[in-house]
């Protein structure tokens, strides 16, 4: 037991040190630093709120287009950023992986924790702005479901990130391919529209996109009285578990080659 706790404490300190390093590397390069993470979703919301206003469209869930976009952006960004940040983790930390106490898992865990913290801070910050501007009535349907969505989105993003990290390590051009896949997903996952209100034909096409289910679940947790008929939690859970299992398996099979890479 003592050996276990000693190993746990070493890993905890390593991960904490990696989080500090990642924070300085990612947000310490410019003067605005961490503020950029806050500004980006605000810019998205303002742009699409202006587009909705110009075209005379209203949010299908309530009068706040800003809240509609925010509830789509948060689960999408959590998944997307995790899958990309973990994909680039090996390349960005090759030097550190030469140290015996630093493992590929530690690098992945530090980026996962930092990304979750960042996205949660951004979401709460923007939500408070919407409340101050009377664009949100400070009520949610289910805090428990909100936490569940965060957990599932984290697992899905981290699992995909692990898969991406191994594939990008073996095939350097894979990062470009994944980037091409994610671009259309930004518009096809339901960030700017409600999948539950779309036609059956469109829902059948979007059914296999797990991020669309994440967004619908998140909106069902936020909006009081909205229950998405599109949402299939069983499909989302099975897909997420499969991705996490494959990610952990690939990382375990490739961990020695990753550590030995120069």
| 3D shape | globular
Q: How would you sum up the major sheet? A: none
The structure class reads: mainly alpha
Helix amount, in percent?
Answer: over 70%
User: Unreliable runs, pLDDT <50, ≥5 residues?
Assistant: none
Give the count of helical stretches: 10
Domain unit count: 1
Description:
- The protein is mostly helical.
- It has one domain.
- It is built from ten helices and no strands.
- The protein has helices spanning 2-27, 35-55, 65-87, 89-92, 104-132, 143-170, 174-188, 200-206, 210-222, 233-260.
- Helix 3 runs parallel beside helix 6 (143-170).
- The longest helix has 29 residues, at 104-132.
- It is globular.
- The two termini are 35 Å apart.
- The relative contact order is 0.13.
- The model has no long low-confidence stretch (mean pLDDT 87).
Brief sketch in words of this structure:
The protein is 74% helix and 0% strand.
Task: Summarize the SSE layout with pairings.
Blueprint: H1 2-27, H2 35-55, H3 65-87, H4 89-92, H5 104-132, H6 143-170, H7 174-188, H8 200-206, H9 210-222, H10 233-260
Tag the structure with descriptive keywords.
mainly alpha, 10 helices
